[in-house]
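#struct-help
A.M.: can someone run this one for me? Single chain, 721 residues.
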Amino acid sequence: MTNSNQPNQGFYPMAKLAIKKRQLIKKLKLWRKLWINRYQKNPTLQESNHDKKITYKEQLSYLYQVELDSFLLSDKNLSFPSTEKPLVSIILVLHNRAELTFQCLRSLMTVTLNAEHPCEIILVDNASQDQTNLLLERLCGVTKILNRENCHFLAAINQASKVAKGSYLLLLNNDAQILPGTLSAALDTYSSANDIGAVGGKIIFLDGQLQEAGSIIWNDGSCLGYGRGGNPFDYPYMFRRDVDYCSGAFLLTERNLFLEMGGFDEDYKPAYYEETDYCLRLWEQGKRVVYEPNAAIVHFEFASAQSNDSAINLQKAHQSIFTQKHSQQLANYHLPPAPENIVLARSHSRNSNHILYIDDRVPHAFLGSGFPRSRDILQALVDLNYCVTFYPLGFPEESWQEAYEDIPKVVELVLHQGIEGLEEFLNQRAHCYDLIFISRPHNMEILNPILNRNSQWFEKTRIIYDAEAIYALREVKKRQLLGKTVSQNEKKLLVQTEMQLAENADTVITVSEKEQEHFTNAGVNSVYTLGHTVDLKPTAKKFEERTGIVFVGAIHNINSPNADSVVWFAKEVFPLLQEKIGNDLTFKVVGFNKCQKIWDLQSDSLQVLGKVESLEEIYNCARVFVAPTRFAAGIPFKVHHAAAYGLPIVTTSMIASQIGWEDQQEVLVGDDPKTFAEKCTQVYFNQKLWESLRNAALNKIQLECSRDNFVQKVETIIKSQ
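D.P.: on it. Structure tokens below:
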């Protein structure tokens, strides 16, 4: 007998069955709606594709449609975090193609989840007739503007900009997918200078080829997407630069600036040329438009237009409007459309000199061997607003991330070409460069035959040969240390052979007056000296708080001057110092090191550290810096660098002579093991001497290695005739 006070035990299964039935009916209705939207309006989709070829765009469209249908059949929503104070307002204009919008929104999930860059998403739907309304119903945390008719892209962007809350507007096509790190890269670039008005990025086709890496405006108002069809990771597209304009498919600009400029000019309704006009108006207002290579989207292209032809026709119609509005700007500052003008026109800075800089490798400071100076020259050229291409001749293989680690991102780095690719590169860039700046004798030896064979490529190109030093003299000194005899005639011949490398140079640079004199005596008319630039960073610890001796320098092989210095000091001098100072004395060898024989010197007291993240703490703890160099060419950067950190230096007479510093004044000098050890001991125990050497060297650095003077000297050399 059933207790009337107890609920009917059969009720719950029946209720569950009824609920499931209602859910099934709801899904069937939704599926029917999807089927009607998809197939009745697109009956060709019902046809079998087995017997016909379909494009990659069609294949991806089918896949995207399946993913959208699966999402709409689920019980899930696409939720974005909401914020009252967004940094960026991301604006998408929709008109059908819901499957592409869905992919775009999915790509934005990782962007909007970044708390560092809070975003709002504004969707403007221009009366879509497909599944867009179903998709919009399943979105949370977005702002929706629903237009009853298609007001097209331009008007919709202006409409959304007026309700946006972000400091920045990001215009993003709904047929685009934003790639990881893109928004951060664009924002970092935008905030890097006060005169930037817009930032665009790399736009990549669905097949992985480049659509554009910034765009060119020709003097007839026609436009060219730079790099179309290329590899997105080839060197011409991997450096940051000012451009005429960037596509509205991905364009970051400040909201207040956009509104002050009146938004997009409505004379370009319904679309096309509006972003071209906006960017050119920014330039006319003194604002820059910048292409950032680490910002990238994948783009369907022309997905919202009825056909590619209709989009192209719209562009042509608006070109005439654009040329009328900007006729003077186009005539005065833009080049005529021609293949030979593309490299010159890819950067907006038309009046800047274009410089090709050739050296062994990308000049990272940790490499030593003259590369810190090369890096400073490179930075000076950038500071002087030259358009610079850097060609690493001997070591061209490096990852992009490593290559740009301490190199200005506005420099074009020609990686992966090397010696084999140099002549073809110069052929492709014939007449593009106002100046070729080439460092080191062995590189000039490679360039000279190319210059002689192809003089027509360089009719208006000046050649500056940065010889740095007379390497023949270093070779002579090295042979003598090894006990080999070098006659005066042999020495003279070695020097003359090196002098002859300057035959094609209009100007020669050396690091000291001694080397300058050699070239002048050899008949070179235009010779300049250019030393180092070092920032003063005196370390804080007092004399009594410091211990140990340090050497800092890059060691590339056992035959290098730095390797010889360390081996000689470790075997001949350091044992004498341990006798005088104590066995607890430490000698640290710091810096890039590819020589196993140096690593093998390690012991409890002799520490080989290799490359370190920061040298400041190394210099702050050590009491004495040693530069026991017995053969070298040029001015050793390591001595200036150590002095700038306030570390007293013991070195050889050769180094003291090269930098023009005096024994007992700015440095201590010793050439044999006994004398070198005595000088180290003196400064190690004598606080007054330690402070005197430190202060005198700091004064020399301030006087001789000023960055302003260095940049000014570079400018003088570049402008010399």
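A.M.: thanks! The chain has three domains: 78-345, 354-529, 543-705.
D.P.: also worth noting: The radius of gyration is 34 Å.
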